[in-house]
Amino acid sequence: MDRSEIMEILPHREPMLLIDEVYLNEDGTATGYYNVRGDEFFLQGHFPGNPIVPGVIQCEMMAQASCVMFKDIMDKESTPLYTGLDKVKFRGMVKPGDRIKIDISTKKERHPFYFMHGELSVDGKVCANGDFSFAIM
Question: How many helices (H) and strands (E) does the chain have?
Fold first, then answer.
């Protein structure tokens, strides 16, 4: 899926749409990608002269990549809302020019709640991982 297809599922729009493409894998997982351009709003003050993608933005990227896994149960009025983060670890910096890979798996489902695990990496190096949950409202 490209950005236009993602926008048919997610309510996010610029500047908060943080996924460029995503693939639904045969094993029920998802893999998303985002290319850090360097002109994103969240890099303007984080940090001048040494831009680093904030951890909270990395968490949002994992959440957005996971939501496309539920495209069949979300409609135009649905809004995916974060309900929790757990065991999140930041292990490396993400900088302009990086191509982020986001791997997502489902741990548990109890509609409208979904419990996920995500791993965000650059060039095979894990930069962030953790568990999170959201509700589709």
Answer: 2, 6
